[in-house]
Design a protein that fits this description.
Elements lengths: L2 H16 L1 H20 L7 H23 L14
Helix pairs in contact: 2-3
Length: 83
C-alpha cells in the first residue's frame, strides 16, 4: 500500500472512533459476531476463524469502550488541576 492510502485509512478509523454512535453500533456488531463464532459449533471452523474471532472481538470491545467513554483530553495542564 502506498502512503496516501494508509493515511486515508487512518483518517477513516479516527473519524469512526470519534463518532460515538457509529463506534458503539459497529463495536456491538463485532462483539456479537465474536460471541456467535465462539459459542456455536460450525463445520467450517478452524484456527483461522478462531484468530479472526479474537481480533474482531478485541476491536469490537475497543470500539465499545471508545463509544461509551467519549472524547477525553489528551493532556491536562497540571497548573489547572483543582484540589
Amino acid at each position: 500500500m502506498k502512503l496516501p492510502a494508509i493515511r486515508r485509512m487512518r483518517g477513516t478509523l479516527i473519524r469512526l472512533t470519534l463518532a460515538r454512535r457509529i463506534a458503539t453500533s459497529i463495536g456491538a456488531v463485532l462483539v456479537f459476531l465474536t460471541v456467535v463464532l465462539s459459542l456455536a459449533d460450525f463445520k467450517w471452523e478452524s484456527w483461522l476463524t478462531d484468530g479472526f474471532a479474537l481480533f474482531t472481538g478485541a476491536l469490537g470491545a475497543a470500539l465499545l469502550v471508545v463509544g461509551f467513554s467519549g472524547r477525553r483530553a489528551d493532556w491536562v495542564d497540571p497548573s489547572r488541576i483543582e484540589d
